[in-house]
Amino acid sequence: MSQAAEQRSEFRAAQYVRASTEHQQYSTQNQADKIKEYADHRNMEIVCTYSDDGKSGLSIGGRASLKKLIADVEAGCVDFNVILVYDVSRWGRFQDTDESAYYEYICRRAGIQVAYCAEQFENDGSPNSTIIKSVKRAMAGEYSRELSVKVFAGQCRLIELGLALMGKPGVGKTQFLLKMLTDIRIQSNYQTNFVYFDYKGDVVDNENFLRVAKVQPYRLLQAGQSLPINPFVLPSYDDQNINISAREKAESFASINSKLGVVQKGALTEAIRAGYAKRSGSSTPYPDFQDILEIVTAAYEEDGKKDDSLIEVLRDLSDFDLFWRHGSESLPIEKVSNRTLLIDVHAMPVLKELVAYLVIERLYKEMANMPDSPVIDGNRTIRSILVIDEAHNYLSQKNIFLQRIIREGRSKGVVVFFASQSPNDYQQDFFNFQELLEFAYIFQCEGVSANSVQKILGCSTRTAKDLQTEIARLEPWQVVSRSIDKTEEFVKFEAEAFYKTY
């Protein structure tokens, strides 16, 4: 046997490769090429490969090959004495640098060295290499920590394109949302407002959030509270505006309640027109739902009609006292877009979607009459954010005003934040939500389709299929998001919680 062959047999190596995306720089093939070059130069023989392809380095949880490597080393059933890794970041982007060091220590304790082939230092245990390695580990972990900061900074820069958070209950989604909203409020000196629909009532009792973000809560059907909003307020009260508003209201009701047919829509349209006529010339030239109910009831009695689904909806809107009505002590608020409101609808047995629809319509009407939002330092000023919790309850409805805000709101400084349970929720045939929502944060979800992941993250088919499994196995607070770094298809990071920051 030659001396070179004897030397080679003394250094039997395992290679560990990891790639979170298919991009060229960190592809497993590129890593393997560099590792082979390193091994050949040092007369090492690579005898086995451990590969985690399409896996984040944030934790060891989803990395089956790294876990097997460590288990094999601990069991003493390996025939190699060195592990070759492309660089420190491929070993892992652990948030706790001690965790990275711990896995390396397990190998070293078993007499197996870990070598980082692309680094500019030899991992020889010298004081210099120890210091450099510690810095590299911190940098690798900081990269992941900074992703949430970078994404948030990018979001503040490009937030006019919209945002969606997805995840099952209890994984940190709401806390992350509250943190973002509060950050935006504070960073804008409370000039950016939001209207938040609290579907389940799990935010309205967060007194700290209400205080720090300066939010006015409205608990519908609780303690006699109603919204100081009149859905019939218009920019002007000419015949054209009134006729358009009447038709749109009728379409809104019909889109929520499938029992409302052509006849009911016609009756509602005429009643709304009559309501404006009734209040014309007064200081408050707009009807309320009591007016509309009375007009429709009188018309039905005159025609000998029985009460139907239209009467039922109008009676609920009037009797539940959900919106401002004539006779109230104060006037309705002039604008929704310059207020920060939390509308708690969880106690409502019916009409949750319709209440949201009417407020969204009002916000759109205000937005349509705004001048373009000013651009400061290249960034468009955000005036108002529409926040829809449990959005899967709304996304399937053909809400034309929501669609218009998403499409047209960018120039006006009005954007939409959705919080729902799955990327699947955004796959609607009638409107391309995925294309118009620039930022997507995916927490742990179950039953996610690869197609929905691909569309909402803009990643390749292969990556989307790999992420299907990884998303189902995410730990609480772990997030997969579209990367703002063009060299990676997605990023994975730990979400920050409101309660930990504020």
Descriptive overview:
α9 crosses α10 and α13 (352-368) packs parallel to α15 (400-412). The protein is elongated. It folds into three domains: 3-145, Resolvase, N-terminal catalytic domain (Rossmann fold, 3-Layer(aba) Sandwich), CATH 3.40.50.1390; 162-225 and 338-501, P-loop containing nucleotide triphosphate hydrolases (Rossmann fold, 3-Layer(aba) Sandwich), CATH 3.40.50.300; 239-317, no CATH class. The protein has helices spanning 3-10, 28-41, 64-75, 88-91, 97-109, 127-158, 173-187, 207-212, 239-256, 262-279, 289-303, 309-319, 352-368, 392-395, 400-412, 433-436, 450-457, 461-472, 498-501; strands spanning 12-19, 45-53, 82-85, 113-116, 163-166, 193-198, 216-219, 341-344, 375-376, 379-380, 384-388, 414-420, 427-428, 431-432, 439-442, 478-482, 490-494. Helix content is 45%, strand content 15%. It is built from 19 helices and 17 strands. The strands form four sheets. The protein has a nine-stranded mixed sheet, with helices on both faces.
Draw up the topology in text.
Elements: H1 3-10, E1 12-19, H2 28-41, E2 45-53, H3 64-75, E3 82-85, H4 88-91, H5 97-109, E4 113-116, H6 127-158, E5 163-166, H7 173-187, E6 193-198, H8 207-212, E7 216-219, H9 239-256, H10 262-279, H11 289-303, H12 309-319, E8 341-344, H13 352-368, E9 375-376, E10 379-380, E11 384-388, H14 392-395, H15 400-412, E12 414-420, E13 427-428, E14 431-432, H16 433-436, E15 439-442, H17 450-457, H18 461-472, E16 478-482, E17 490-494, H19 498-501
Parallel strand pairs: 1-2, 1-3, 3-4, 5-12, 5-15, 6-8, 6-11, 7-8, 11-12
Antiparallel strand pairs: 9-10, 13-14, 15-16, 16-17
Helix pairs in contact: 9-10, 9-13, 10-11, 11-12, 13-15, 17-18
